[in-house]
Structures are given as C-alpha cells and as structure tokens.
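Encode chain A's predicted structure.
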Amino acid sequence: MGVSVTSVTNWRETPTSLLGMYIHPRIAIDSSIGLNPSPVLNLAAEVGHKDVHLGCEVGFDTASASFIKYTAGISFNKPDLSAALILHKTVSQLEVLMLSIATTRSKLKTRFSDNGKVAMLCQREWRPKSLITLSAEYDTKKTEVAPKWGLASALKP
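Encoded structure for chain A:
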C-alpha cells in the first residue's frame, strides 16, 4: 500500500491582477493581488479531511493598510447530516454568523448579524419532491416592529 500525493500549482496573470492557486487532497490555497499602485490582496485557504473542513478568506487593502473583509468557517459532513458555521465581516462592519444544518429530509438555517437582525429558515420534505418552508426575521433593535414570518409550500406530483 502506497501513499499518493497530488499537488498543482497554477499562476496566471490577467491585465488587472496576478492569481495563484495551490491544490492538494487535504489543503487548497488561492490568492490574488491587483496589479496597480495600491493593490488589494486576497487570500483564501481551506484544510480538511474526511468529514471536517476549516476555511478562511482575508482581503487586505494595501492603500489603507487595513483588512477589508474576512470570512472563517467550519463544516461537518456525513451522508445523512451536514452542518456549517460561518463568520463573515466586511469593511461596512457587518458581521454575520450563520449556522446551517441539513439532513436528508430537513434543512435549518439561522443568521445573526451585528445590525440586530436574526433570521431563521426551516425546510422539510414531507413527501418526495414536496417541501414546506417556514421563515422568520426579527430586528432586535426595532422592538416596536413586528417580526416577519413566511410560509411556503412546493408540491410536485
């Protein structure tokens, strides 16, 4: 029994940026930098094995010497269950924390943001190819406003 390692390194240049990529069975790295006097540097990486994966993405503006975005996430995958937790932040200071859980017949997604909004989506396949979905959104900073609710069904014969 032997060990096989595959790696690919790819650099290509476009008129506006230089892109680089490294792919391995358990790790992937992707980067780009603008080809101008004050470039933006983007870097994304993912590492994982079998069921668990970790990933991140960072954007850095060299003109202001500051981070303009970052995303970090972890996912867990099995044949009958999939879950992911993601934190996302951009220059507008919007932080979003998302949790997504899916089974073979159900899906639950939640979203929390620093602007005070909380959202939820629950979807269930109650018959083959027939879905019922319940969604809600609530603004914790505007308590005088009623939450938004939604109910939908998709029926297929």
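The first strand starts at residue 8 and ends at 13.
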